[in-house]
Amino acid sequence: MSLQPGTLISERLRLANKIAEGGMGSIWVADHLTLRRRVALKFLAPSLARNPEAAQRFLIEAQAVARLSSPHVPQVFDGGGTFEGTPYIVMELLEGEDLYARLHSTGRLTIADTARIVAHVAAALTEAHELGIVHRDVKPENIFLTKRQGGRFVAKLLDFGIAKVANGQALTGTGATLGTPSYMSPEQLMSSRDVDLRSDLWSLGVVSYYALTCQLPFAGETFAAVCVAIERGRFVLPSAHRDDLSPALDGWFSRALCRDPRGRFSSALEMSRALCVVVEGRATACALVDGELPLVRRKTAPTLADSVKAPSLPRGAVTAFAAAFLLVLAGLAGAALIGAPGGELPGTPTLQPAGGSPEPPASAASVTGPPSIRSSTEPAPRRRPLPAPPQRSSR
Fold first, then answer.
1. Residue 364 pLDDT
2. What's the Cα-to-Cα distance from 233 to each of 82, 87, 214, 371, 383, rounded to whole Å?
3. Which of 31, 98, 113, 137 is catalytic?
4. Where are the alpha helices (DSSP H) in 214-314?
5. H or E stretch including 328?
6. Could you tell me the domains of the chain?
7. Number of neighbouring beta carbons within 10 Å of residue 104
């Protein structure tokens, strides 16, 4: 069957217009005749439909996304195949643009908008990771910004086509490389099959760096050059690109882009909250995560996130340490209030306006990464237009 506007795919679905096409397939707007609403249809390319591995991966994508209830992942309504057997997925139709298109039309984002995107994507990743799903392809083209009233947007994470699903059928060999090189973690370059959730967090860190600076932290003219840059683990600190980015934000990136997975954030939620601390200046002011995004928390067997958590202290030791810490903190606060006019604590970090002096580090312990693999002395590159789209993998 040739896909054309007006073609009936089933008794309920009629094609309207094509909105995207690539090597893996195409995406169409379709009319759902029963529900009387428009939906998106994602088709696997006919040439790949005859490939059992590609067809199985397409099915796994549909099943993985259908398991997610996060508002930051498109809904999957149904799935099926054309009369000739070409698989398709029926999904929520989104209105807006992807992050890559937004950056090329408006330039780099504000710190607040970047933190909002990180919070939304982190919400999607949190649920996926709890279900044992590693996305493996977090990049600007796969983050869609939907239009909302009042100028606020909602970010949704797209394309779970190369996701790694726990306890699922292995679709790639140990040495296979899947993903987009510029956004891949060092361990993903070695083996896409063996990565865990911290690889997605690395990719989200690269996305954040690109959103704020319109530069890639690890760039190269060829795939090999990109791999070498990622392996070296050195990048120009983001504050060298913009005067309104603080040293505390540099520390957040040093941890997000730590070459050793053990030095990164242990979860998407921790990563997002740490960025809120940097942006908003205090740990209790994380409305981007806690107020807007009630994250799913399941009481189930150990999850993917549990495998990367740091060991905990015995309960008695934690209680004693917390009590001692609170006594010291109360004493310091009382002394500060005595000498501070109006009862305000001196030195409270606040968010500075764009172009102003950078805010002091907030909760630096939560965002500081290993300094030995970072270079804060590398000169900032010369300002230039947005780079060409990063190399894409053929999948």
1. 36
2. 47, 40, 19, 11, 22
3. 137
4. 223-232, 247-256, 268-280
5. helix 315-339
6. 13-91 (3.30.200.20), 96-310+354-373 (1.10.510.10)
7. 14
- Quote the CA–CA distance of 189 and 371 in Å, as a whole number: 23
DSSP state of 8: B
Cα 388 from Cα 247, distance rounded (Å)? 28
Phi and psi at residue 345, in whole multiples of 5°? -75, 125
Specify the 3-state DSSP secondary structure of 40.
Answer: strand
User: By the 8 A CB rule, do 139 and 161 touch?
Assistant: no
pLDDT tier at 165, thresholds 50, 70, 90: confident
Average pLDDT, the chain: 74
Both structure tokens of 251: 């520390």
**Which single residue is written with the structure tokens 């947005």?**
386
What's the average model confidence in pLDDT over 27-44?
A: 91
CB distance 388 to 144 below 8 Å: no
Model confidence over 202-258: pLDDT tens digits? Answer: 999 999 999 999 999 999 999 999 999 999 999 999 999 999 999 999 999 999 999
Please state the pTM of the whole predicted model.
0.70
Give the integer Cα–Cα distance in Å for 130 and 307: 11
Beta bridge partners of 39: 30
Query: 318-353, pLDDT tens digit by residue?
Result: 344 344 444 434 443 444 433 444 333 333 333 333
DSSP code for 20: E
244 as an active site residue: the answer is no
At 358, the pLDDT band (50, 70, 90 cuts) reads very low
Q: What is the mean pLDDT of residues 261-280?
A: 93
Q: Token pair for residue 275?
A: 């960025």
Of 217, 292, 294, 219, nearest to 252 by C-alpha is: 217
